[in-house]
Design a protein that fits this description.
Layout (H helix, E strand, L loop, with lengths): L1 H26 L29 E4 L12 H10 L3 E8 L5 E3 L22 E5 L2 E5 L7 H4 L24 H9 L6 E6 L2 H7 L8 H11 L9 H5 L4 E3 L2 H7 L7 E5 L13 H4 L2 H7 L5 E4 L1 H4 L2 E2 L2 E2 L5 H7 L3 E2 L19 H12 L3 E4 L2 H11 L7
Parallel strand pairs: 1-2, 1-13, 2-6, 7-8, 8-9, 9-12
Antiparallel strand pairs: 2-3, 4-5, 10-11
Helix pairs in contact: 1-2, 2-4, 2-14
Length: about 375
Amino acid sequence: MVFGGTLKHNSVMGLKCLLPLLLLSLLIADCASRPLYRLPSEAKDGTKKPLQTSRPFNVAHRGSNGEFPEETAPSYMRAIEEGADFIEADILSSKDGVLICHHDVNLDDTTDVADHKEFADRKRTYEVQGMNLTGFFTVDFTLDELKTLGAKQRYPFRDQQYNGKFPIITFDEYISIALDAPRVVGIYPEIKNPVFINQQVKWANGKKFEDKIVETLEKYGYKGSYMSEDWLKQPIFIQSFAATSLVYISNLIDSPKVFLIDDVTILTQDTNKTYAEITSDEYLDYIKPYVVGIGPWKDTIVPVNNNRLMTPTDLVARAHSRNLQVHPYTYRNENQFLHFGFYQDAYLEYDYWINKIGVDGLFTDFTGSLHNFQELSSPLPKLQ
């Protein structure tokens, strides 16, 4: 009886998992305001369940990309289904100035561009963040051309069955997925490689990459400071590794911003400072008026040696003393990403970072596992 029940349960769950993909293929339509990527609504009276704010934010890093190719519509829809508070995206541009969701400035690792012989002559070498990179770059393809490519899974040890089946999506399409969700779901767009994009793509009237991102957000009604009424209706954090971009857009939009921090030895793309300098008290004091938080690489907070956690730094404490949130990246369930001491148990890692280190949000490739952990350890009040 148990075995039969399990089969029945698995069949139902399988159908449930396929539903967003079926809806995606059936319900994409033109609309005066935005394209539609509707998930089944839980709202019975037109009122969506609000964003939870009582526990650290579950940020779906490039969607649920532990299951689907990153930054695709199914990846984001699965993340919403699994309980994400925010869906995160990296914003880049096509050759013709259309904003797209894609992590790398080149297309080699996460699309099937190498299989498209018609684009064989598009391979280029560019200097990106002080390094020469050779490959196929988003800035050398129009949106129509990019849409012919199929996304693929970045890591070979993850599920490869969806490779080539889903296209690159635009910034507008990503936003529509969040707005059409059955509950309030925030967006967490990154101004990605702004120095490179502004060098390679030119918009009319002298507009910059940052201007185009803000224009898109305003078009869909994103506004309001952190925890304001407007923000709670359409939650957003705008992030970037380039502090100059965050300072620039602070004069254009009042939505909360998060400054990303890499390994302390790396130079920022827009200054000659290392991230060691960026994490100094002096710099935190400088950036505080422009941001509500920082998003450090987790090994910057707790250094690692031979895959073992070392003594935590005081970065979280210094950020919190300035009323800055801390949203580290990236949490991944696979054994090769779990440091010794967590015994190959992602829940132990979540517990360490939330309850010992005290972070305010986590970027994870596996939205469902973080959601399940939080539901077990700190369930939301019944009213929410």
